[in-house]
What we know:
Layout: H1 3-10, E1 36-40, E2 43-47
Antiparallel strand pairs: 1-2
Amino acid sequence: MTLADRRLREGRYPDSLEPLNLQELAIDPFTGQPFGYRLTGERYQLASSA
């Protein structure tokens, strides 16, 4: 399930990436660390930890 799917189904983006069960897709390939995710109102920010 993607962020867009979650928003369509639940009417909002999730508070964190954990409910999406992205496993290795949530890991930044450049740093090996999880991507930064921040929800602000009806928008989200996804960022590299580099």
